[in-house]
Input
Amino acid sequence: MILPNITNNENKILHYLYSFRFIHTNQFQKLFNHKDKTTVKEWLKDLKDKGYINKVDNDKDSFEKKTKPTIYCLAPKARHILKKSEDSDLVVLDKIYREKKRKPKFVNKCLSIVDMYLFFQSQKEPAQELEFFTENELVRYKYFPEELPSAYISISTNGESERYFLDVFAPNTPAFELRNRVKLYLSYANSGSWEANTDDLPLPSILFVCPSKNLKTHIYFFAKAKFEKAFEEKFDLYLTTWEIIQSGNKNIWEKVTIDK
Output
């Protein structure tokens, strides 16, 4: 659905913000694969002037903060129009009223999920098809884990699909939150809910983007112990960190395995 008085590309911006919630100007430029920053900024300004999007206040007193890209989110006016779209969910749209008051930790996590989408786009082969569904797009699927992943990813090659649940953890996330996610997926795997609702497709692999190398190591051995207690890997769990992703290495995922 295209909103009144805006261009196709501006409409795409609104739908990107519906999916990811917070996106900064540099990310928008990559999403559109646009070399001219001015054009993207003109689209954003037009949407801002028309009241469809808001800038996120991020105290630009220091030089460092002044040089950071501007972050945007949907404004309430966009909600009233997006609710007419079949692709929108009222549960998601009701969040828009509080978007500008979200804490920096949450905003930065959303930005990290955009970065992961861009990363997967950069890694896929020309013949592959990538589908990337954020938490906002998953709320209507009742058979997903009760606490939704950051994203559900499907990569298709010649009709064969690889599926993943992606969990992105913000910096300074305590270890117990990662342990709880492993427990949640163990419970979900044992429930059989995924297989029952997907014609017995195998459970997607789980991808954790850990906040630090230490937490990656910690969760590796925590999950390994859980799997060993069950005498099998209950699901495929792969771990990495932002530092590893940014290193440019090709093999960034480490699979949790048990000794058999």
